[in-house]
Structures are given as C-alpha cells and as structure tokens.
Design brief:
This protein has 389 residues and is mainly alpha-helical. Helices cover 62% and strands 5% of the residues. Strands 1-2 form a two-stranded antiparallel ribbon. Strands 3-4 form a two-stranded parallel sheet. It is elongated.
C-alpha cells in the first residue's frame, strides 16, 4: 500500500530528497511510538469533548490506538515518522474517521509531547539506576580501609576506601538533585501549540494536560516551539554530568586495580581477554564507560550546535536532535547499570592499600603537629618539607 505523507500536495518528491530528509527518523521514532500513541489517545478524547469528533469517532480512534499500543507497529521509511505511521494506520482501519486525528495539531507539537513523555520515563529510569548505584557504593564504603590519597597522580595525604566510595555516592546524589530540577522543567504539556503558533480552533489543552499527567500546560505556542532542542539540551547536560562522575569512577578503578597498585580487584567474569596475550584480563567495561563520557559530552556539543543561530519557531534542523539525545540516554542508562555490577562485585585488597601507606603521606600531619605547638604554619611547612627533600 502506498503510504500517504501528512504534508502531501499532489506532486512527487524527488527520491534522493526524500531519502535525505527522512534520514533515520523512522528508525528513531520506534522509541517514541508508544508515547506518540499515548498522546494521540488523549488528543482524540479532547477532540471528542470539544465536538470536533463525534463520541463514536473518538471512541473508535481511542480503541484502535490502544490496540496499536499493545501490538506495536513497524514504521516504514515511506511513513517518514511515527506521526504519519499512526495516522496511516488509523486511516486504514477507520477510513475517513482516521483522517480526523490530525485536527488541531501538527507533527511539531506531536513530536514535542512524545519527547516530553519519553524524557519523563527516561529520567525516572535514570533516577532508579543512580539510586541503585548509590546504595551499592554506600555498602562498599563500609568496608573501610586506609589507602593513599592522590593529587597530581602522586601520593598526597592519608585517605581510605570508605572515603572514596562515599565520595562517589555523594557525586551521584548531586546528580539526583539535577534530575529533580529537570523533571520540573520538562513537566509541561506542549500539545495544542501546533507548528508554534497555536490553532484557530477552540480546544481544551487542559484536558490533554490532565490526561497525560503533566503538572501544567505550556501556554505560549512560540515558547513550545523554542523549547525544542533546548529541553533536549537540559537532558543532555544532566546526562553529561552523570557520565562525568562515572568517568571519574572508571578512571580510578582502572588505575587502582592494576597489578602495580592492586588496591581493588575486578572479578574475572567482568573482564575481557586479549587475542594474543594469554595472561591478560582487561578492564574493558570500565574503559568503555570512561570513553562513553566523551561520546555523551560530544552529543551535547552537537545539540548545542544544531539548536543555535535559529530564529524563533520550528526548523527542520530539530529533526537531527533526536538521535543524539536518544543515544545519550541509552548510553547513560547502560553505563550506570554496568558500573553497578562492577561495584557490587569489586574486591578491596586491604593488605595492598596498607603497604602503600608510606611515610610521605603523613607530612602534612607532621606540619600541623608543629602548628599545634605554636610554630607558624609557613615555618612548619618548610621544616617538614626539608625532611622529604
């Protein structure tokens, strides 16, 4: 069956142009399809209440959409996106009634609301994964043993494994505060803003706001349009912050689990091997977590570039923000999960850490002993310093 495009005007689009403009949107929209369906059900019910659909039409559309949500739908390249795929499906099933679903909306606000719902679910998953990892880190911090603290990658002052793992937990707790703020920003319904300038119909946006569980309606339609890309950036920034913390943890664990240190021990089944060196056990998962911070950070930079230098209103440029943000969310969720598995099974070698507690770590403490005896700090600093030169 020939798939109709929502913007069709009676001419045939150049094939190369079609390929280029569709890109991988139809693939990415498989992720957004359930949310697009959810928003479409709320929209159909609102149209019924406002009289743009009869009660039977609204019920028929809602019924078909609920069935579609259960069985799923493969979005074809000819569909372009989830929005077109849903309308084509309804038209096949309900004929003329299916063609009415697009009343009082645009693909733009359809995408906005689907993304908001997707982000809400994603943030909830991120919170759950982060809390799970925090719990594991706090449990690991109770296995407290002295270990060297480092500055400039050189021994600095006495520390402990408990202090280190507790620090990791604190870093992620900061990220939870950021996610909580993010939820407040995202919790606004943009449906009804259409292409960024509203629709010349009396609609009840509060109805879809309540139905979809948003805290409030995003009233100004230009604000809705201008939040496309910017809200992705809010999410991307939170993801980058989480990945930065995981990057720090991975860097520590890679170094301190090396035989030259031996403070921590990685279970064999969480490591991979070398294709040439039989003895090797490589911390590949940690190395990929470390590297994936840069991937996610790079996607954030990409989003900033795509969203800048555009006047107010919708632009097709925004289509290219889907891939980076969806990929970033997936990477961050999997990285949190993998780090949790590693932390849970990580061994702590108290003997190796104790052996590493060499005398220079106590130099600052020696200086402060002199301070307590009334020696000015600068003189104490110089005197103790001479002992280690």
């Amino acid at each position: 069956m020939n798939m109709a495009k929502l913007w069709k005007k009676g001419y045939k689009l150049d094939k190369e142009i079609e390929e280029y403009t569709v890109g991988d949107d139809y693939i990415l929209d498989q992720v957004l399809l359930p949310y697009d369906i959810q928003a479409s059900i709320a929209h159909a019910e609102m149209l019924g209440k406002c009289g743009y659909l009869t009660n039977s039409e609204a019920e028929a559309i809602a019924k078909e959409l609920k069935a579609l949500a259960k069985k799923g739908l493969e979005i074809k390249k000819g569909d372009e996106d989830s929005h077109t795929a849903i309308e084509n499906y309804l038209t096949r099933k309900l004929g003329e009634t299916g063609k009415k679903i697009h009343t009082a909306r645009s693909r733009n606000d359809q995408c906005l609301v689907a993304l908001r719902l997707y982000f809400a679910d994603s943030v909830a998953q991120l919170e759950a994964e982060a809390k799970s990892l925090i719990k594991l880190l706090k449990a690991k911090s109770k296995i407290d043993a002295p270990m060297p603290g480092y500055t400039h990658t050189r021994k600095a002052m006495p520390s402990s494994s408990g202090m280190l793992f507790s620090a990791y937990a604190g870093m992620l707790e900061d990220d939870l505060v950021l996610l909580e703020s993010l939820k407040k920003i995202l919790d606004k319904n943009p449906l009804g803003s259409a292409a960024g300038y509203g629709v010349p119909l009396k609609i009840n946006k509060e109805s879809t706001t309540r139905k979809l569980g948003f805290a409030k309606t995003q009233e100004n339609p230009i604000h809705c349009a201008n939040s496309r890309g910017k809200y992705e950036l809010f999410v991307a920034n939170a993801l980058t912050c989480i990945m930065l913390d995981l990057n720090k943890m991975a860097s520590d664990l890679i170094l301190f689990s090396a035989l030259e240190f031996g403070y921590f021990e990685l279970p064999k089944h969480l490591c991979t091997g070398s294709s040439i060196m039989p003895q090797k056990l490589n911390p590949d998962p940690l190395e990929l977590i470390r590297a994936n911070y840069h991937v996610v950070s790079g996607y954030e930079v990409m989003l900033k570039g795509i969203c800048s230098n555009l006047i107010s209103g919708y632009h097709r440029d925004f289509q290219l923000t889907k891939g980076p943000i969806i990929k970033s969310i997936n990477i961050t969720l999997s990285s949190l999960s993998v780090m949790g598995k590693i932390i849970k099974e990580l061994g702590i070698n108290k003997k190796k850490m104790k052996q590493a507690m060499s005398k220079e770590l106590y130099a600052t403490g020696e200086a402060y002993k002199l301070v307590e005896q009334g020696v000015p700090f600068r003189e104490a600093y110089e005197e103790v310093g001479r002992r280690f030169m």
